Amino acid sequence: MQTLVIDHPLVAHKLTALRDTRTESPAFRLLCDELVTLLAYEATRDIRVEPVSVTTPVGPASGMRMAGPQPMVVPVLRAGIGMLDGMIRLLPTADVGFVGLARDEESLVAATYANRLPANLAGREVFVLDPMLATGGTLETVIGMLAEREAASVTAVCLLAAPEGVDRVAAAFPTDDPLPVRVVTAAMDERLNERGYIVPGLGDAGDRLFGEV
Ligand code: URA
């Protein structure tokens, strides 16, 4: 697995505002949306393209267009929904699948409660949206579901990551795994606390996006 921590002043600026407890849901959603678009720019750096010729008003030009099959974007419910618009802004023709996982706050083990994925993802590049790569349990499960469906590659876009989570996913999908896996994140934080929250993190991403329900 490859991990890419995006070093960009705008990413740092928006992430700092997201972390701030004074940032309330409306501003948090907007910042999250903008930050994801910045991360999406890097996350799609290796997306498959093919050469194409077009005619400009002045003459012929060679260029590139995205090659099929269409990529798939998979937000992990609930908090990943807050990242969807920011991602498909750059990939408007992507299909969108959904996976719902909830973690038990005692055991920290994530259980799947929703799955709307195609049975076959052969040849398709998949972008998983999950704001917090904390223990890595959720991401490991979701990538496993995508591997079973024969995805060509998986890129996880995360606002924040903890070393524990990155290590777990890297152990499950080492660099020589047939499925290439990448994590793109705005920052690698210090650690997890005893409740599995990222420190310093930004708290519960779902609650901050959508309120405590
Ligand atoms: N999920 C969150 O929303 N926040 C964390 O810090 C860890 C998991």
Description:
The structure is a single chain. By secondary structure, this protein is α/β, with parallel strands linked by helices. Helices cover 30% and strands 31% of the residues. The protein has six helices and 13 strands. β2 and β3 form a beta hairpin. α1 packs antiparallel against α2. The chain is globular. Bound molecules: uracil. Uracil binds next to α6.
Write a brief caption for the model.
The protein is an alpha/beta fold. 30% of the residues lie in helices and 31% in strands. The mean pLDDT is 96.
Give the SSE layout.
Blueprint: E1 2-5, H1 9-19, H2 25-43, E2 49-55, E3 60-66, E4 72-77, H3 84-88, E5 95-96, E6 98-103, E7 110-116, E8 125-129, E9 132-133, H4 137-148, E10 153-161, H5 163-172, E11 181-188, E12 191-192, E13 198-199, H6 205-210
Parallel strand pairs: 1-11, 4-5, 4-6, 4-8, 8-10, 9-10, 10-11
Antiparallel strand pairs: 2-3, 6-7, 12-13
Uracil is lined by residues 79, 132, 134, 196-198, 201, 204-206.
Number of strands: 13
Rg for CA atoms: 17 Å
Helix percentage range: 25-40%
Task: List ligands, each type once.
Answer: uracil
Main sheet makeup: 9 strands, mixed
Unreliable stretches covering 5 or more consecutive residues: none
**Global shape:** globular
Distance between the termini: 34 Å
Structural classification: alpha/beta
Encode the helix/strand succession as letters.
EHHEEEHEEEEEHEHEEEH
Q: Helix tally? A: 6
Q: Taking all residues together, what is the mean pLDDT?
A: 96
- Report the β-strand fraction as a percent range: 25-35%
